[in-house]
């Protein structure tokens, strides 16, 4: 297959949740990310926007924000099916 880029396997991908304590949308996003990453084998991490000035400036009005391998995937609401597809599952 010439000209096609092969997608990375889900297990080699990293999902990052950018949120803040006490945010109910962040709690909802965390639950979806935990479930999808458990299914697909992708790793995930969480970053607190209140502890990082750069993240605060970039994403304050969008939290929760979800990145996949450092690239923005979505914000506010996380769709499990869309996240699964993006991870190649």
Describe the structure.
- The chain is α+β, with helices and mostly antiparallel strands and 89 residues long.
- It has one domain: Glutaredoxin (3-Layer(aba) Sandwich), CATH 3.40.30.
- The protein contains 3 helices and 4 strands; from the N terminus they run βαβαββα.
- The chain has helices spanning 24-40, 53-59, 80-86, and strands spanning 14-19, 43-48, 65-68, 71-75.
- A 4-stranded mixed sheet has the order 2-1-3-4, covered by helices on one side.
- It is globular and about 30 Å long.
- The model is unreliable at 1-6 (pLDDT under 50).
Quick structural gist:
By secondary structure, the chain is of the alpha+beta class. The protein contains three helices and four strands. β1 (about 15-20), α1 and β2 (about 45-50) form a beta-alpha-beta unit.
What's the CATH first level? Answer: Alpha Beta
Strand order, largest beta sheet? 2-1-3-4
Question: What distance separates the N and C termini?
Answer: 20 Å
User: What's the number of extended β-strand segments?
Assistant: 4
């Amino acid at each position: 297959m010439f000209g096609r880029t092969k997608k990375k396997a889900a297990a080699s991908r990293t999902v990052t949740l950018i949120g803040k304590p006490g945010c109910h949308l962040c709690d909802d996003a965390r639950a979806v990310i935990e479930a999808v990453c458990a299914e697909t084998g992708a790793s995930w991490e969480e970053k607190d926007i209140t502890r990082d000035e750069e993240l605060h400036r970039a994403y304050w009005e969008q939290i929760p924000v979800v990145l996949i391998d450092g690239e923005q995937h979505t914000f506010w609401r996380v769709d499990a099916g869309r996240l699964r597809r993006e991870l190649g599952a």
